[in-house]
Design goal:
The complex is a heterodimer of chains A (about 375) and B (about 675). Chain A is of the alpha+beta class and about 375 residues long. Chain A folds into two domains: about 210 residues, no CATH class; about 80 residues, no CATH class. In chain A, the strands form six sheets. A five-stranded antiparallel sheet of chain A has the order 2-11-10-6-7. In chain A, α5 runs antiparallel to α6 and α9 packs antiparallel against α10. Chain A is rod-shaped. Among the domains of chain B are: about 150 residues, no CATH class; about 230 residues, no CATH class; about 80 residues, no CATH class. In chain B, α1 packs parallel to α5, α7 packs antiparallel against α19 and α10 packs across α13. Chain B is of the alpha+beta class. In chain B, the strands form five sheets. A five-stranded antiparallel sheet of chain B has the order 12-8-3-17-16. Chain B has a five-stranded antiparallel sheet with strand order 9-4-15-18-19, covered by helices on one side. A three-stranded antiparallel sheet of chain B has the order 2-6-5, with no helix packed on it. Classes of the chains: A alpha+beta (about 375), B alpha+beta (about 675). At the A-B interface, α2, α5, α6, β6 and β7 of A face β1, α5, α6, α7 and α19 of B.
């Protein structure tokens, strides 16, 4: 369960495909432990419909919803934004009451009537209680760290209550199988980490957050779709492809001197056309008449340029994914790396901010950054 | 405590499961007496298995075990019950499904089905019993089932079963006002179709065949037969002859009904039969209603002579007795008007004269000759009747609950040898003597007397009030009631059976625990009458709240009552009550949460305020304590200990918000102060 939302740092990142396979394997293992697991999951999905269903998804409804529940960083639930309808269980309950009433009528049994009426009343009163279990709850948006495309983004949402009213069995999330439960009984505040599977790179808006409860008796479901105005940056999904383009670039003298104060003589090799005249070992030439070039490694920096043109004959997204993979690889090494893609040039460096800067550039390449 | 938990995957919360198992036991327990032994075994096996699963010792049963269980149910029920379309096998099936589902609770849906079944099994109990204790018990089980339902929707970390129970109680308590509205105002309708009723239930009360010993065995029971409520004061005890059955056939040993006399019926809304003109009422009439306990028989009891009831379910037969169209399988209530003075059949056709004087020619020859001899000596039929009654009175006849067993010629043996008998012996022999002398006569079965409950203003008639007497036809007078028992034991008719058999101490001999045996204990009798009247109101106003009763009650308060109007009244009241409930449930509880420690100190402050020295705003505990000590020096030591304990506790957990101080000591001190304050009140 939690393994599905493993840490999101780049150290353990694997390409999307592998990640999914591993997951499937885990769930298979679980299934072999419990044969019923599969339909159980599908059942739970049934029990908790999400935003992605029929009418609720329609454009007209969403326009109306946007007016009624406008986006905000802090939302307090109340009559304006809580919806309530009977659950499937609630309908079964109605069927039960119907049969009880039939028994009461046909047997002319007042006590059966009484019990049926009690259950009708319970049904009605539970509307109030279920509504009460959301009403007055305050939801506050928290931060979410960037993720790679296809991974689950983790949003932090703070639930809090004001006053003596307690809340129980609140369920929130974006996806039926990624819902989180929360109680506010002894505590006045609770933080929920919510996961949502991301799609394409760029700014990802998870949409409206579903927050629902069917406490106390599960006959009614009260819910709200709150737009907490949250978004997360999604980097391109890393795809392994090709080696790191190792390009040894001799830096010019000035920079090299700045870099290192000592000459770190490495060795000699045969002079080749194009070698700098300054590096010719004149002393050795005088002695042996052989033209050799001195190598000063410390004056040479291993700088990697991640270049758009490194990957040819690929569409932009594929290039971005491979570049992204390389960034992740390089960020674990010591070499500096720079980025050179159409319209963007980032000078080489190697530190976490630089990595984020590069990845952000990759994520937003060709997109409107403000979107 | 972190309350966050992922929701994927499913396991029934243990809290809910525990309540579910409790509720299941509670719901099935009352049915056990009616279920065949093998279903009980299956119940126990499933329950045991489930508890083992709950404790983690066993796993769920393999498929073949479940298949075996299911087949044992499917095969066993038709084998175990003679009739399939009946109530008991249906309930047995329901119970089996219910317990088997226990072993199949893998999903939330399964658990939910178990809960719904539990609710349904709970209502079936009401088909058998409707008394107050049963209702309270079933209500308690409903609370338990609801607790399980709530537990099902709580997060798994919620592990406080009693808190869940409290929530269920609150929820149901809030539902009660709405339930009452619906109960009183929801338009009740007549049955839509006929349903299988309880079968195999022993018929109770008087039977339509009377042989010697029948009624004396009935008199061993203190079970309620019916209650009668009079609009005015009830008639005197001696006039309470509840006429039920008329037995006109004698086969030499037992008396029975004449089947052909039951064919012609007089029913409301139908053309009255010719014989209905043979009835005339004289004098005062009584309005009363009877709530009859189910006895599985189709005869009803009434004071002679009833007026034809308005309800078409109740008819009058040729011998002017009341009968129900269908056997009384459930408690019924019928309203009657009876005139205690009446005349029926002033003239009798030869056919009926023959019928009512017919006896087997060879039976009881000694009695026949006795009758002929006495009739010759008497001047008139009336004189003959008086002679026979005088014989019962003056010769050594004994009224006893323990008559000796009689042989083939039972009337001869009774009249000439044993002379010890119960009402059936006297009524039977009396009618025989009349017939042997050529006077039309018949045996009437019913109840005589009953206990008047002054707080409930009703008469409760029990099985030991069962009685048999005679009706003799006299020229121009018609059928006249004679009770030969009253000639032997007048106290039976005036004060009831207990007084009549007081000498031999045989009243309710077979039931030593019966509360009726201790009538000499006044408080017990008082208690019994009180409980009896509560049960009576329950039966007449709750259990007996039928469509008719609803209409007649509500017509008192609303004009032009009909079903549509009732529906709209119900909706109006329902939504008003719902609105009030909504205000109550959704009210803002803005009151800040007070820590238990501070609450205790505030309690102390209120106590002192009542004493006349309120705490000033911003006054510290020590300052307040010092001022109080001056104000009430007699409480100084207690005040000091409370204040210093409060301050100590307050600082002991300073800087550690989560730590809850142990306020037990402070609570004790405040309590001690309160007691001291009460005892030293100025």
């Amino acid at each position: 369960m939690t393994d599905k939302k493993t840490a999101l740092d780049a150290q353990t990142i694997a390409p999307h495909g592998i990640d999914k396979q591993a997951l499937d394997k885990q769930s298979l293992d679980r299934q072999s432990l419990d044969r019923q697991s599969l339909d159980r999951q599908s059942l739970d999905k049934q029990a908790m419909p999400t935003i992605k269903q029929g009418f609720w998804r329609s454009k007209r409804f969403n326009i109306w919803l946007k007016k009624r529940v406008p986006p905000a960083k802090v939302v307090t639930l109340g009559q304006r934004n809580i919806f309530i309808l009977p659950t499937g269980q609630g309908l079964y309950f109605v069927v039960l009451i119907f049969f009880m009433m039939l028994a009461g009528i046909n047997y002319q049994n007042s006590l059966i009537f009484a019990l049926a009426f009690l259950l009708i009343s319970l049904f009605i009163v539970s509307i109030l209680h279920t509504f009460r279990n959301l009403s007055g709850l305050t939801i506050q948006a928290g931060q979410a760290g960037p993720v790679f495309s296809g991974q689950d983004a983790a949003f932090t949402v703070t639930l809090s209550r004001n006053g003596a009213r307690t809340y129980e069995s609140i369920v929130l999330g974006w996806h039926a199988d990624m819902m989180q439960g929360a109680d506010l009984l002894d505590n006045t505040e609770d933080q929920a980490r919510l996961y949502v599977t991301t799609g394409q790179r760029g700014w990802f808006n998870p949409g409206r957050l579903l927050i629902q409860t069917n406490y106390p008796v599960g006959l009614f479901r009260a819910w709200s779709w709150v737009d907490l105005d949250m978004s997360v940056l999604v980097y391109p999904g890393p795809v392994a492809g090709g080696d790191i383009p190792v390009s040894l670039v001799a830096v010019n003298e000035g920079e090299a001197l700045l870099k290192s104060g000592t000459d770190d003589f490495h060795g000699l090799r045969q002079h080749q056309a194009g070698d700098s005249l300054r590096h010719i070992a004149w002393k050795s030439y005088a002695r042996t008449d052989e033209l050799l070039t001195k190598e000063f490694n410390s004056f040479v920096d291993r700088t990697v340029w991640l270049d758009w043109d490194h990957f040819t004959a690929m569409d932009p997204e594929a290039r971005l994914s491979r570049l992204c993979f390389l960034v992740v690889q390089l960020s674990q090494m010591t070499d500096d790396y720079g980025l050179r893609i159409p319209g963007i040039l980032i000078q080489p460096a190697n530190n976490p901010e630089h990595k984020n800067k590069v990845l952000k550039a990759l994520a937003l390449f060709g997109l409107d950054p403000d979107e | 405590m972190s309350s966050l938990s992922p929701v994927t995957g499913y396991e029934i919360p243990r809290n809910s499961l525990a309540w579910m198992l409790f509720a299941q036991v509670a719901v099935i327990a009352p049915h056990l007496v009616r279920l065949p032994w093998w279903i009980i075994m299956v119940c126990f096996a499933c329950g045991f298995w489930r508890v083992m699963v709950y404790q983690g010792r066993w796993s769920y049963p393999p498929r073949w075990v479940k298949v075996c269980f299911v087949f044992s149910g499917l095969i066993g029920i038709p084998l175990g019950y003679s009739k399939i379309y009946a109530l008991e096998p249906a309930i047995a099936l329901l119970v089996i499904a219910f317990v088997l589902k226990l072993l199949e609770m893998h999903h939330k849906r399964d658990a939910y089905i178990v809960i719904l079944l539990a609710y349904f099994v709970a209502i079936t109990e009401f088909l058998f019993f409707q008394s107050i204790p049963y209702t309270l018990y079933m209500f308690a089980t409903v609370v338990m089932i609801t607790t399980a339902l709530i537990g099902l929707h709580q997060t798994k970390s919620h592990m406080k079963p009693l808190q869940t129970f409290r929530t269920a109680v609150v929820l149901l308590a809030q539902s009660i006002p709405l339930m009452l509205v619906l109960f009183v105002l929801f338009p009740r309708i007549a049955p839509l179709w006929s349903v299988p009723l309880q079968t195999g239930v022993a018929k109770t009360g008087v039977t339509d065949v009377m042989s010697p010993g029948d009624i004396s065995s009935l008199a061993q029971s203190d079970a309620l037969a019916f209650t009668a409520t009079f609009e005015t004061d009830p008639p005197p005890y001696g006039a309470l002859y509840w006429r039920g059955l008329v037995l006109s056939e004698f086969d030499g040993k037992s008396w029975s009904q004449a089947p052909d006399l039951r064919r012609s019926i007089w029913r409301q809304g139908e053309a009255p039969p010719e014989w209905s003109n043979n009835l005339s009422y004289i004098g005062k009439s009584y309005n009363y209603s009877i709530i009859m306990e189910p006895n599985q028989q189709s005869w009803l009891f009434s004071l002679a002579m009833p007026v034809l009831p308005a309800n078409r379910d109740y008819v009058i037969l040729r011998d002017f007795r009341l009968a129900a169209v269908k056997p009384v399988r459930q408690r019924i209530r019928y309203a009657l008007r009876s005139s205690l003075e009446y005349r029926i059949d002033p003239q009798l056709t030869n056919f009926y004269r023959y019928r009512y004087t017919r006896i087997p020619a060879q039976s009881n020859p000694q009695s026949q000759s006795l009758a002929k001899k006495m009739y010759r000596e008497a001047s008139s039929p009336q004189g003959y009747i008086n002679d026979v009654l005088r014989m019962y009175h003056f010769e050594e006849f004994v009224y006893t609950l323990k008559p000796p067993l009689l042989g083939g010629e039972s009337i001869d043996e009774f009249l000439l040898q044993s002379r010890r008998g119960f009402c059936e012996h006297f009524a039977g022999s009396f009618v025989f003597l009349m017939r042997a002398a050529g006077i039309p006569a018949r045996v009437v079965l019913g109840y005589q007397g009953g206990e008047y409950n002054p707080s409930g203003k009703y008469v409760a008639v029990r099985q030991f009030d069962a009685h048999a007497w005679a009706e003799v036809w006299l020229e121009d007078k018609g059928w006249v009631r004679f009770d030969p028992t009253s000639a032997v034991a007048p106290e039976r008719v005036e004060r009831g059976l207990e007084a009549a058999v007081a000498g031999e101490n045989t009243f309710l001999e077979g039931s030593p625990l019966s509360i009726f045996r201790y009538r000499q204990l006044l408080w017990l009798t008082e208690l019994r009458l009180q409980l009896g009247s509560i049960a009576y109101y329950w039966d007449s106003w709750v259990v007996g709240y039928t469509p008719d009763r609803q209409m007649s009650l509500l017509s008192k308060y609303f004009d032009r009552m009909n079903r549509q109007r009732l529906g709209s009244i119900m909706l109006a009241v329902f939504f008003t009550v719902l609105g009030l409930l909504a205000v109550f449930i959704l009210r803002k509880r803005s009151r800040a949460v007070v820590a238990p420690l501070d609450a205790e100190f505030l309690k102390f402050c209120r106590l002192m305020q009542k004493r006349g020295c309120a705490r000033k705003t911003g006054e510290g505990p020590f300052d307040y304590g010092a001022r109080l000590a001056l104000y009430t020096p007699e409480l100084a030591t207690e005040i000091d200990s409370v204040v210093s304990e409060y301050v100590r506790l307050n600082y002991s957990c300073a800087g550690n918000n989560s730590a809850q101080p142990n306020i037990k000591s402070l609570r004790q001190m405040v309590r001690a102060l309160k007691i001291r304050a009460l005892t030293t009140r100025v």
